[in-house]
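just leaving the lab so this will be short. below you get a single protein, a line of residues and a line of whole numbers that encode the local backbone shape. id like you to explain what the token line says about the fold, in plain words if possible. thanks a lot i owe you, the record is right below:

…
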Amino acid sequence: MDYVMDVNGTHIWYYFICKREVWLIAHQIAADQEDDNLEIGRFISETSYQRQKKELLIGNIKVDRIRREGDTLVVGEVKKSSTYEKSAYYQLLFYLDTLRKMGIEAKGELLFPKEKKVTKVEWTEEGKRVLEEAVADIRRIARLPVPPEPKKIGFCRSCAYREYCFAEE
């Protein structure tokens, strides 16, 4: 039986931004843990929405916030900014889909505390189709013997992996 890589929310988040970073993460190559952007993200996640429950590990997903709104479970994902909202959307949709497979119906909220912005996310068939394609492509990327070539994009300026891609520049 062939090994099937366990895809998680971090893979989904980076997939919609940078395929090379997906490969680096899949191969457990650690980003610069002292990168300012990583530290700011951790600080925002730890200090925002203090009254809601903190991180919760469920299977292979780790949700930032969880609360009840009447009979509905609401899962929250905290992000530093909405610049990469599409990635955040699919990461949260991945969490909702994973919960759904466990028999748990939930709604999602993308939380951007610095912008005081909240975006609602609900599971859809179309979203699930996009996720399934992304998961298959993430597994394909992870099986590559070397990472995809680096492509300079706006995200590179704040990426904790930038030295892996552009160390000689």
